[in-house]
Amino acid sequence: VQLVESGGGMVQPGGSLKLSCAASGFIFSYVDMTWVRQAPGKGPERVSSINTGSSRTYYADSVNGRFTISRDNAKNTLYLEMKSLKPEDTALYYCARGWGLPHRAYWGQGTQVTVSS
């Protein structure tokens, strides 16, 4: 089982980024997926989740209206489009298997997002 995140980087406040998560080693289309983030010195925060058929999504209040989760089951890929980024969005972003806040054992290796002027 492998989850490989990409697309992170440094962006100014108000900017945008799109994260990707390439999944392998399991039947991606059968598994709900979640984005989790962790800022330095803070605990993990569930950012967004999507069910297998993309018919149900969840967003944390802190990102609702600014972030959009999506998936392409044909490409075994999960996405997180982030707009109107704020400095408080700075964190390591992980994709994870499952709905809710999955155990760390089900996370990828993460991609860094830094929002700074």
**Unreliable sequence segments:** none
- Arrangement of strands in the largest sheet: 2-10-9-4-5-6
SS strand fraction: over 45%
Counting DSSP H or I runs of 4 or more residues, the number of helices is 0
Largest sheet: 6 strands, mixed
Q: Quickly give the structural class.
A: mainly beta
Helical residues, percent: under 10%
Using DSSP, what is the number of strands? 10
Give me the strand/helix succession: EEEEEEEEEE
Shape: globular
Query: What is the rounded distance between the termini?
Result: 37 Å
Overall mean confidence score, pLDDT: 97
Alpha carbon gyration radius: 13 Å
Give an account of the 3D structure.
With 117 residues, the protein is mainly β. The protein has no helices and ten strands. Strands 2-10-9-4-5-6 form a six-stranded mixed beta sheet, with no helix packed on it. Strands 1-3-8-7 form a four-stranded antiparallel beta sheet, with no helix packed on it. The chain is globular and about 40 Å long. The N and C termini lie far apart (37 Å).
